Amino acid sequence: MATGHADPRRRERILAAALDLIAEEGVAGVSHRKIAARAGVPLGSMTYHFTGIDELLLEAFTGYADHVVGVFEQHLAGATTPEEAREAVTDLVHTLSGGPRRDLILVQELYTLAARREPYRALCARWMRRSRALLEAHFPPDTARHLDALIEGLTLHRALDDDPPERSVTREAVERVTAAP
């Protein structure tokens, strides 16, 4: 295995391994040793790339949040009318709720950290601002805020429901939130 400078993807492998382990064992089950083993890197490279486990976890979750914002961008980018934006939001909820269970777990682990620790709360606040900004390209700010919460709630409920509601139910909820007063 190459050393830190000769292996430009090592840092990314470490971050990916951290997220995989969090999804499997929760944040409490993560350690430098486990992450290094999963990433296939020497244990010493952990301290070369990160000052500690908090820096590593925060960077891993930041990358994950960037990924989810990218999913928002992909769904909303093509919408040019309010009707297309509503359809894009409906698609987004179904894409997120139908995604890998890993994603659901990562979001919940991040929220748990955010409930207890400021750096993660700040990360979640930045993530929400970015999501709302994408929604505000199509809806007024207050509507975008409500819609962002609806997306999150519907995604969670659909992902955990043994018999998730049909698309028409999601679409109706999006229409209700985005209807003009």
UniProtKB/TrEMBL annotation:
Compositional bias (Basic and acidic residues): 161-175
Boundaries of every HTH tetR-type domain copy: 8-68
Chain positions covered by the region annotation Disordered: 161-181
Keyword line: DNA-binding, Transcription, Transcription regulation
One Pfam family, short name: TetR_C_31
InterPro entries with a match to the protein in the record: Homeodomain-like_sf, HTH_TetR, Tet_transcr_reg_TetR-rel_C_sf, TetR_C_31
Signal peptide interval: none
DNA-binding interval(s): 31-50
Official protein name in the record: TetR family transcriptional regulator
Organism: Streptomyces lusitanus
